[in-house]
Amino acid sequence: MATASVAVRPHENVTGYVTKTRKMLINGKWVDSASGKTFETYNPATGEVLSHVAEGDKEDIDRAVKAARAAFETGPWSKISPSERGRMIWRLGDLLEKHLEEFAQLESLDNGKPLKIARVADLPLSIDHFRYYAGWATKIEGNTVPMSGWKQGMFHAYTVREPVGVVGQIIPWNFPLLMAAWKLGPALASGCTIVLKPAEQTPLTALRLGELIQEAGIPDGVVNIVPGYGETAGAALAAHPDVDKVAFTGSTEVGKLILKAAAGNLKKVSLELGGKSPNIIFDDADLDSAIPGAASAIFFNQGQCCCAGSRLYIEKKAFDKVVEGVADNASKIRVRPGFDPDSDLGPLVSEEQLNRVCGFLESGAKEGAKAVTGGSREGTTGYFVKPTVLINTNPKMKVVQEEIFGPVVTAIPFSDPSEIAATANDTIYGLAAGIWTRDIKKAHSLASKIKAGTVWINCYNIFDASLPFGGYKQSGWGREMGHEVLEHYTEVKSVCAAL
Ligand code: NAI
Ligand code: MG
User: Domain boundaries in the chain?
Assistant: First the structure.
């Protein structure tokens, strides 16, 4: 591995941004935490402290919820036209585009991901997300309803979709800015007000986005951003009696805690959780695209994707060729710090994740899995892991059942295509799946049998703001994106008038 020679010149705003202690955004003001405490974030490429951030806790969440409540009930947000709301969200997208390089660098420093990837994936997707939901602000409609059991003309009935109210949003560290965009876009379009809690590992782009939210003209108190730990700030937000809805992305384990915490006031809950997604390659697939496709399905974002194609099922005749191809692909991936222009794969986000992923690699080896390539940490500085392809696994192994959330794929042969749906569905998760074949009948018939919220055919990790994303089974509740997500941020009111 090359050493951390930072070939890309850091953006002046970025160096300035990380050196100053970052405050939290409550009611349009940048403030310290009530306790005065701060926490540190780290550069995952070096393990060194990157910045100091105000540490939010229950009292800060309380202040933020009060501000969001006031903005929702009586503030300018409650009276603003949908068109103006849409314009503000569009402006936010424009501002993000204007500051693209700065945000991409901040994201790379905080999360570890290659800068070149942040530039072409995280940023454009976030910008497009705001633009897509800017358009929805003016298109949230109800229906007029012909009542079925009453004489015609007795009643006039209609439905309206109203914003659900104050929304708590808790997001993870794998796509820090994009997850903020996924959550904020539809909530703003619907007319909700928000308390956002970024992940403690990666709060910087969400906080910087708060400045752009102000610049876009979104009124004070509409978006409040409280960084802090999950067990304190996150838990307080999920349990808060004056929050109407909580939207969460993260581990299935914490998803269940959120659900329990939400029970107190029966707030609405949507959850986007873990996965162990099957990626299925048939003998008749175009292997020239399936092989690099399978590699990027798992190695993209260091494997830290909830929908990563982590269980690679390959029909017997193609098995050796695909394994060899994916392993060859993996061995050519340049594992470097995110600021190195040649970096294809950066460090994992934290020491905790490094230990977690290495723990899985050890357990796989102990249980008899063989690493065709990779299989261990890369270097001794930073949190790098070698892209790894495991064979000789069996369905009971932890590496086959549990979400690793690192650049580790298990390659498993299959011989009976009629059994592959059952094998693919043999998991507690149901987030995504991939199918590679030239036979469209086979592809669509298998797609119908897979219990997952997204099925990619002859592609993988393709996202669009218009396409709903979310999980079956323990991968979550509800959907992000598309018009589907707007249902989570609105309540339906039936109005019935006697004529
Ligand atoms: P996590 O689920 O603990 O963290 C996600 C977010 O939840 C963070 O903002 C965190 O502060 C917050 N949180 C944690 N505990 C909370 C609580 N009790 N109440 C309210 N909020 C809380 O995930 P973690 O520990 O960082 O990663 C562990 C594993 O979770 C990963 O190895 C991966 O398997 C999975 N994960 C899945 C993600 C996804 O996109 N579905 C994203 C991040 C992690
Ligand atoms: Mg956790």
Answer: 12-273+476-495, 278-464
